[in-house]
Amino acid sequence: MESTQGSISATFHHSARDDIVQVFKKWDANKDGFISRESLVEILAKVGMKESDANAFMSTVSTSDQLQYADFVEWLCFPKAMVQSGVVPLNASFLGRTCKFFVGTNWKCSLESIESVDSLIADLNKMWLDDGASMSEVELCIFPPYVFLDRVRQQLHREIRVGSQNAWDAAPGFKSTGVISAEMMHSIGCRWVLLGHSDRRNVLGETDTLIHDKVTKCLEAGLSVNLTIGETREARDAGNAISTLVDQLSAAVAHVPGDAWGRIALAYEPVWAIGEGATPCTPEETQRVLAALRAWIRDNAGPDAARACRLLYTGSVNENNAEVYARLPDVDGFVVGRAGLHISKLKSICKSLPKCNVPAGL
Protein backbone atom coordinates (compact mmCIF):
# COMPACT_ATOMS: atom_id res chain seq x y z
CA MET A 1 0.00 0.00 0.00
CA GLU A 2 2.80 2.45 0.87
CA SER A 3 4.23 2.44 -2.69
CA THR A 4 0.76 2.86 -4.19
CA GLN A 5 -0.12 5.70 -1.86
CA GLY A 6 3.23 7.31 -2.50
CA SER A 7 2.73 7.26 -6.27
CA ILE A 8 -0.70 8.84 -5.92
CA SER A 9 0.68 11.50 -3.59
CA ALA A 10 3.47 12.27 -6.03
CA THR A 11 1.00 12.63 -8.90
CA PHE A 12 -1.16 15.13 -6.99
CA HIS A 13 1.73 16.95 -5.36
CA HIS A 14 2.90 18.34 -8.69
CA SER A 15 -0.33 20.31 -9.09
CA ALA A 16 -1.88 23.07 -7.03
CA ARG A 17 -4.15 21.68 -4.33
CA ASP A 18 -7.06 23.99 -5.20
CA ASP A 19 -6.89 22.96 -8.86
CA ILE A 20 -7.13 19.31 -7.87
CA VAL A 21 -10.08 20.00 -5.60
CA GLN A 22 -11.86 21.69 -8.51
CA VAL A 23 -11.41 18.52 -10.57
CA PHE A 24 -12.99 16.47 -7.79
CA LYS A 25 -15.76 19.07 -7.41
CA LYS A 26 -16.99 18.34 -10.92
CA TRP A 27 -17.84 14.83 -9.73
CA ASP A 28 -19.77 16.10 -6.71
CA ALA A 29 -23.28 15.23 -7.85
CA ASN A 30 -25.03 16.47 -4.69
CA LYS A 31 -22.80 19.53 -4.18
CA ASP A 32 -22.20 18.51 -0.57
CA GLY A 33 -18.43 18.07 -0.53
CA PHE A 34 -18.55 14.28 -0.94
CA ILE A 35 -17.95 11.94 -3.86
CA SER A 36 -18.48 8.21 -4.16
CA ARG A 37 -15.72 5.62 -4.01
CA GLU A 38 -16.57 4.65 -7.58
CA SER A 39 -16.03 8.21 -8.77
CA LEU A 40 -12.74 8.42 -6.94
CA VAL A 41 -11.54 5.19 -8.52
CA GLU A 42 -12.45 6.59 -11.93
CA ILE A 43 -10.55 9.81 -11.20
CA LEU A 44 -7.48 7.86 -10.11
CA ALA A 45 -7.69 5.86 -13.32
CA LYS A 46 -7.73 9.10 -15.32
CA VAL A 47 -4.41 10.18 -13.76
CA GLY A 48 -2.76 6.97 -14.92
CA MET A 49 -3.55 4.43 -12.22
CA LYS A 50 -4.81 0.97 -13.10
CA GLU A 51 -8.43 0.43 -12.08
CA SER A 52 -7.49 -2.72 -10.15
CA ASP A 53 -4.82 -0.81 -8.21
CA ALA A 54 -7.22 2.06 -7.54
CA ASN A 55 -9.86 -0.32 -6.22
CA ALA A 56 -7.33 -2.10 -4.03
CA PHE A 57 -6.11 1.23 -2.67
CA MET A 58 -9.59 2.47 -1.87
CA SER A 59 -10.49 -0.82 -0.14
CA THR A 60 -7.47 -0.31 2.07
CA VAL A 61 -8.11 3.31 3.04
CA SER A 62 -11.86 3.31 3.61
CA THR A 63 -14.97 1.20 4.08
CA SER A 64 -17.19 4.21 3.50
CA ASP A 65 -19.13 4.69 0.27
CA GLN A 66 -18.61 8.47 0.42
CA LEU A 67 -15.42 10.48 0.96
CA GLN A 68 -14.95 14.16 1.66
CA TYR A 69 -12.69 14.95 -1.27
CA ALA A 70 -11.14 18.25 -0.10
CA ASP A 71 -9.69 16.59 2.98
CA PHE A 72 -8.73 13.52 0.95
CA VAL A 73 -6.68 15.70 -1.39
CA GLU A 74 -5.17 17.52 1.60
CA TRP A 75 -4.03 14.19 3.02
CA LEU A 76 -2.56 13.06 -0.30
CA CYS A 77 -0.65 16.33 -0.74
CA PHE A 78 1.11 16.12 2.61
CA PRO A 79 2.96 12.77 2.68
CA LYS A 80 5.71 13.98 5.03
CA ALA A 81 3.75 13.45 8.26
CA MET A 82 2.68 10.05 7.00
CA VAL A 83 6.28 8.99 6.40
CA GLN A 84 7.42 10.28 9.77
CA SER A 85 4.67 8.47 11.66
CA GLY A 86 5.21 5.20 9.83
CA VAL A 87 1.50 4.73 9.25
CA VAL A 88 -1.20 6.46 7.27
CA PRO A 89 -3.21 8.88 9.46
CA LEU A 90 -6.60 7.82 8.14
CA ASN A 91 -8.73 8.69 11.17
CA ALA A 92 -9.71 11.81 9.30
CA SER A 93 -12.82 13.62 8.26
CA PHE A 94 -12.60 12.43 4.65
CA LEU A 95 -13.58 9.00 5.96
CA GLY A 96 -16.89 10.55 6.94
CA ARG A 97 -16.51 10.13 10.71
CA THR A 98 -19.85 10.87 12.32
CA CYS A 99 -19.09 10.02 15.96
CA LYS A 100 -16.45 10.70 18.55
CA PHE A 101 -13.50 8.55 19.42
CA PHE A 102 -14.28 6.28 22.34
CA VAL A 103 -12.14 5.63 25.42
CA GLY A 104 -13.45 3.23 28.03
CA THR A 105 -11.75 2.69 31.39
CA ASN A 106 -12.46 -0.69 32.96
CA TRP A 107 -11.93 -0.44 36.72
CA LYS A 108 -12.54 -4.19 37.19
CA CYS A 109 -12.24 -4.71 40.98
CA SER A 110 -9.20 -2.49 41.33
CA LEU A 111 -10.90 0.04 43.65
CA GLU A 112 -12.55 -1.49 46.68
CA SER A 113 -13.25 1.46 48.99
CA ILE A 114 -15.44 4.53 48.81
CA GLU A 115 -12.45 6.71 49.61
CA SER A 116 -10.44 5.46 46.64
CA VAL A 117 -13.44 5.83 44.32
CA ASP A 118 -14.18 9.38 45.47
CA SER A 119 -10.53 10.33 45.05
CA LEU A 120 -10.43 9.06 41.45
CA ILE A 121 -13.74 10.78 40.64
CA ALA A 122 -12.31 14.06 41.90
CA ASP A 123 -9.24 13.61 39.71
CA LEU A 124 -11.40 12.77 36.68
CA ASN A 125 -13.54 15.86 37.20
CA LYS A 126 -10.50 18.07 37.50
CA MET A 127 -9.01 16.56 34.36
CA TRP A 128 -12.20 17.24 32.42
CA LEU A 129 -12.57 20.79 33.72
CA ASP A 130 -8.92 21.56 32.96
CA ASP A 131 -8.62 19.75 29.63
CA GLY A 132 -12.16 19.07 28.43
CA ALA A 133 -11.86 21.44 25.49
CA SER A 134 -8.81 19.60 24.16
CA MET A 135 -10.63 16.28 24.49
CA SER A 136 -13.85 17.38 22.83
CA GLU A 137 -13.57 14.62 20.21
CA VAL A 138 -13.42 11.87 22.85
CA GLU A 139 -16.35 10.04 24.40
CA LEU A 140 -14.92 8.97 27.74
CA CYS A 141 -16.77 6.22 29.61
CA ILE A 142 -16.00 4.90 33.09
CA PHE A 143 -16.85 1.27 33.91
CA PRO A 144 -16.90 0.93 37.74
CA PRO A 145 -18.13 -2.13 39.69
CA TYR A 146 -21.88 -2.44 40.27
CA VAL A 147 -21.77 -1.24 43.87
CA PHE A 148 -20.25 2.12 42.88
CA LEU A 149 -22.29 2.83 39.74
CA ASP A 150 -24.80 5.25 41.24
CA ARG A 151 -22.15 6.98 43.35
CA VAL A 152 -19.95 7.53 40.32
CA ARG A 153 -22.84 8.75 38.17
CA GLN A 154 -23.95 11.29 40.77
CA GLN A 155 -20.50 12.75 41.36
CA LEU A 156 -18.85 12.49 37.96
CA HIS A 157 -18.85 15.35 35.45
CA ARG A 158 -22.01 15.02 33.36
CA GLU A 159 -20.06 14.92 30.07
CA ILE A 160 -18.21 11.76 31.12
CA ARG A 161 -20.25 8.62 30.49
CA VAL A 162 -20.78 5.85 33.00
CA GLY A 163 -21.16 2.21 32.03
CA SER A 164 -21.59 -1.13 33.74
CA GLN A 165 -19.08 -3.97 33.62
CA ASN A 166 -21.87 -6.50 33.10
CA ALA A 167 -25.62 -6.96 32.75
CA TRP A 168 -28.38 -9.52 32.83
CA ASP A 169 -27.18 -13.06 33.61
CA ALA A 170 -30.71 -14.47 34.05
CA ALA A 171 -32.88 -16.57 31.78
CA PRO A 172 -35.52 -14.58 29.82
CA GLY A 173 -38.47 -13.63 31.97
CA PHE A 174 -36.99 -15.05 35.16
CA LYS A 175 -36.49 -12.56 38.00
CA SER A 176 -33.35 -14.12 39.45
CA THR A 177 -31.88 -13.21 42.80
CA GLY A 178 -28.78 -11.07 42.50
CA VAL A 179 -29.22 -10.23 38.82
CA ILE A 180 -28.88 -6.66 37.56
CA SER A 181 -31.02 -5.89 34.53
CA ALA A 182 -30.23 -3.49 31.71
CA GLU A 183 -33.33 -1.47 32.60
CA MET A 184 -32.06 -0.97 36.17
CA MET A 185 -28.77 0.41 34.94
CA HIS A 186 -30.39 2.64 32.37
CA SER A 187 -32.65 4.09 35.07
CA ILE A 188 -29.70 5.25 37.20
CA GLY A 189 -27.97 6.98 34.30
CA CYS A 190 -25.77 4.26 32.80
CA ARG A 191 -25.39 4.62 29.07
CA TRP A 192 -22.93 1.84 28.24
CA VAL A 193 -22.37 -1.76 29.24
CA LEU A 194 -19.19 -3.81 28.80
CA LEU A 195 -19.92 -7.28 27.42
CA GLY A 196 -17.80 -10.19 26.24
CA HIS A 197 -14.68 -9.31 28.22
CA SER A 198 -12.11 -12.11 28.35
CA ASP A 199 -12.42 -12.26 32.16
CA ARG A 200 -16.02 -13.33 31.80
CA ARG A 201 -15.53 -15.52 28.73
CA ASN A 202 -12.45 -17.40 29.86
CA VAL A 203 -12.64 -17.28 33.67
CA LEU A 204 -16.37 -17.22 34.37
CA GLY A 205 -17.34 -19.35 31.38
CA GLU A 206 -19.73 -17.05 29.52
CA THR A 207 -20.80 -18.58 26.21
CA ASP A 208 -21.37 -16.91 22.86
CA THR A 209 -25.09 -17.61 23.28
CA LEU A 210 -25.26 -15.82 26.62
CA ILE A 211 -23.30 -12.86 25.26
CA HIS A 212 -25.70 -12.64 22.32
CA ASP A 213 -28.66 -12.57 24.72
CA LYS A 214 -27.00 -9.83 26.75
CA VAL A 215 -26.24 -7.72 23.67
CA THR A 216 -29.85 -8.01 22.54
CA LYS A 217 -31.30 -7.19 25.96
CA CYS A 218 -29.03 -4.19 26.51
CA LEU A 219 -29.69 -2.66 23.11
CA GLU A 220 -33.43 -3.10 23.62
CA ALA A 221 -33.15 -1.33 26.99
CA GLY A 222 -31.50 1.70 25.36
CA LEU A 223 -27.94 0.99 26.45
CA SER A 224 -24.95 1.17 24.14
CA VAL A 225 -22.73 -1.91 24.07
CA ASN A 226 -18.96 -2.05 24.37
CA LEU A 227 -18.55 -5.57 22.94
CA THR A 228 -15.21 -7.31 23.40
CA ILE A 229 -13.85 -10.19 21.33
CA GLY A 230 -10.42 -11.78 21.36
CA GLU A 231 -8.44 -14.90 20.59
CA THR A 232 -6.22 -16.93 22.91
CA ARG A 233 -2.58 -17.67 22.23
CA GLU A 234 -3.52 -21.21 21.25
CA ALA A 235 -5.99 -19.99 18.64
CA ARG A 236 -3.49 -17.52 17.21
CA ASP A 237 -0.65 -20.04 17.07
CA ALA A 238 -2.97 -22.43 15.24
CA GLY A 239 -3.70 -19.76 12.62
CA ASN A 240 -7.28 -19.35 13.76
CA ALA A 241 -7.21 -15.77 15.05
CA ILE A 242 -9.53 -14.17 12.48
CA SER A 243 -11.93 -17.12 12.33
CA THR A 244 -12.19 -17.14 16.14
CA LEU A 245 -12.94 -13.43 16.21
CA VAL A 246 -15.53 -13.68 13.43
CA ASP A 247 -17.23 -16.57 15.21
CA GLN A 248 -17.47 -14.53 18.42
CA LEU A 249 -18.66 -11.42 16.59
CA SER A 250 -21.24 -13.14 14.40
CA ALA A 251 -22.74 -14.93 17.39
CA ALA A 252 -22.93 -11.78 19.51
CA VAL A 253 -24.51 -9.50 16.91
CA ALA A 254 -26.92 -11.93 15.28
CA HIS A 255 -30.22 -10.12 14.66
CA VAL A 256 -28.85 -6.71 15.68
CA PRO A 257 -30.95 -4.18 13.73
CA GLY A 258 -29.18 -2.04 11.18
CA ASP A 259 -29.87 1.21 13.00
CA ALA A 260 -28.27 -0.07 16.24
CA TRP A 261 -24.69 -0.36 15.01
CA GLY A 262 -23.95 3.21 16.03
CA ARG A 263 -24.49 2.06 19.62
CA ILE A 264 -21.89 -0.69 19.39
CA ALA A 265 -18.20 -0.16 20.06
CA LEU A 266 -16.35 -3.34 19.15
CA ALA A 267 -13.12 -3.89 21.09
CA TYR A 268 -10.41 -6.24 19.87
CA GLU A 269 -8.76 -7.78 22.92
CA PRO A 270 -6.04 -10.32 22.07
CA VAL A 271 -6.09 -12.41 25.24
CA TRP A 272 -2.38 -13.13 24.93
CA ALA A 273 -1.60 -9.37 24.98
CA ILE A 274 -3.29 -8.43 28.26
CA GLY A 275 -2.08 -8.43 31.83
CA GLU A 276 0.93 -6.99 33.58
CA GLY A 277 4.12 -7.55 31.59
CA ALA A 278 2.29 -8.67 28.44
CA THR A 279 3.45 -7.59 25.00
CA PRO A 280 0.81 -5.64 23.04
CA CYS A 281 -0.29 -6.75 19.61
CA THR A 282 1.84 -4.96 17.03
CA PRO A 283 0.21 -1.97 15.32
CA GLU A 284 0.52 -3.69 11.94
CA GLU A 285 -1.26 -6.82 13.15
CA THR A 286 -3.85 -4.78 15.03
CA GLN A 287 -4.73 -2.93 11.83
CA ARG A 288 -4.93 -6.19 9.85
CA VAL A 289 -7.36 -7.65 12.38
CA LEU A 290 -9.53 -4.53 12.65
CA ALA A 291 -9.68 -4.14 8.88
CA ALA A 292 -10.90 -7.74 8.62
CA LEU A 293 -13.55 -7.11 11.27
CA ARG A 294 -14.71 -3.90 9.55
CA ALA A 295 -14.92 -5.80 6.27
CA TRP A 296 -17.01 -8.53 7.93
CA ILE A 297 -19.43 -5.93 9.29
CA ARG A 298 -19.65 -4.27 5.89
CA ASP A 299 -20.31 -7.58 4.13
CA ASN A 300 -22.83 -8.86 6.66
CA ALA A 301 -24.54 -5.74 8.04
CA GLY A 302 -23.91 -3.21 5.28
CA PRO A 303 -21.66 -0.18 4.70
CA ASP A 304 -23.65 2.06 7.04
CA ALA A 305 -23.10 -0.37 9.89
CA ALA A 306 -19.38 -0.62 9.11
CA ARG A 307 -19.15 3.14 9.21
CA ALA A 308 -21.24 3.58 12.37
CA CYS A 309 -19.60 0.88 14.51
CA ARG A 310 -16.51 2.10 16.34
CA LEU A 311 -13.60 -0.34 16.44
CA LEU A 312 -11.38 -0.22 19.51
CA TYR A 313 -8.10 -1.78 20.56
CA THR A 314 -7.61 -3.07 24.07
CA GLY A 315 -4.53 -4.94 25.18
CA SER A 316 -1.80 -3.23 27.19
CA VAL A 317 -2.60 0.25 25.84
CA ASN A 318 -0.69 2.92 27.74
CA GLU A 319 0.41 6.53 27.52
CA ASN A 320 3.54 5.55 25.58
CA ASN A 321 1.96 3.57 22.73
CA ALA A 322 -1.55 5.05 22.42
CA GLU A 323 -0.67 7.57 19.73
CA VAL A 324 0.82 4.88 17.48
CA TYR A 325 -2.38 2.84 17.69
CA ALA A 326 -4.56 5.94 17.36
CA ARG A 327 -3.05 6.63 13.94
CA LEU A 328 -4.14 3.27 12.54
CA PRO A 329 -6.88 3.56 9.91
CA ASP A 330 -9.44 1.42 11.73
CA VAL A 331 -8.80 2.39 15.35
CA ASP A 332 -11.64 4.50 16.74
CA GLY A 333 -10.52 4.40 20.36
CA PHE A 334 -9.43 2.19 23.24
CA VAL A 335 -10.51 0.35 26.34
CA VAL A 336 -7.86 0.65 29.04
CA GLY A 337 -7.39 -1.05 32.38
CA ARG A 338 -4.55 -0.07 34.70
CA ALA A 339 -3.79 3.12 32.75
CA GLY A 340 -7.32 4.34 33.40
CA LEU A 341 -6.66 4.46 37.14
CA HIS A 342 -3.90 7.06 36.73
CA ILE A 343 -5.13 10.46 35.60
CA SER A 344 -1.91 11.58 33.92
CA LYS A 345 -1.81 8.38 31.86
CA LEU A 346 -5.51 8.52 30.99
CA LYS A 347 -5.21 12.16 29.97
CA SER A 348 -2.30 11.34 27.69
CA ILE A 349 -4.24 8.51 26.06
CA CYS A 350 -7.34 10.64 25.52
CA LYS A 351 -5.34 13.50 24.06
CA SER A 352 -3.58 11.16 21.64
CA LEU A 353 -6.84 10.68 19.76
CA PRO A 354 -8.15 14.11 18.70
CA LYS A 355 -4.90 15.23 17.09
CA CYS A 356 -5.13 12.15 14.88
CA ASN A 357 -8.60 13.19 13.78
CA VAL A 358 -7.37 15.68 11.20
CA PRO A 359 -5.76 15.10 7.82
CA ALA A 360 -1.98 15.29 7.80
CA GLY A 361 -0.65 18.74 7.03
CA LEU A 362 -3.53 20.76 8.50
How large is the radius of gyration? 21 Å
The backbone outline, from C-alpha atoms, is globular
Assembly state here? single chain
- What is the CATH level 1 assignment of the largest domain? Alpha Beta
Would you give the CATH topology of the largest domain?
TIM Barrel
- Compute the number of helices: 17
Domain tally: 2
Residue ranges: pLDDT <50 for 5 or more in a row? Answer: 1-6, 78-97, 357-362
Mean pLDDT: 81
SSE pattern, N- to C-terminal: HHEHHEHHEHEHEHEHHEHHEHHEHEH
What's the total count of β strands?
10
Structural class from helices and strands? alpha/beta
Q: Assess the beta-strand content as a share of residues.
A: 5-15%
How would you describe this protein?
By secondary structure, the chain is α/β, with parallel strands linked by helices. The protein has helices at residues 2-13, 17-25, 37-46, 51-61, 69-76, 79-85, 114-131, 149-155, 182-187, 198-203, 208-220, 233-237, 241-252, 283-301, 303-308, 322-326, 343-352; strands spanning 34-36, 66-68, 101-106, 138-143, 161-164, 192-195, 224-229, 264-268, 310-313, 333-336. It folds into two domains: 2-77, EF-hand (Recoverin, domain 1, Orthogonal Bundle), CATH 1.10.238; 101-356, TIM Barrel, CATH 3.20.20. It is 45% helix and 12% strand. Helix 8 (149-155) links the parallel strand 4 (138-143) and strand 5 (161-164). It is globular and about 65 Å long. Mean pLDDT is 81; it is low at 1-6, 78-97 and 357-362.
How is this structure best summarized?
The protein has helices at 2-13, 17-25, 37-46, 51-61, 69-76, 79-85, 114-131, 149-155, 182-187, 198-203, 208-220, 233-237, 241-252, 283-301, 303-308, 322-326, 343-352, and strands at 34-36, 66-68, 101-106, 138-143, 161-164, 192-195, 224-229, 264-268, 310-313, 333-336. The protein has 362 residues and is of the alpha/beta class. Helix 7 (114-131) links the parallel strand 3 and strand 4.
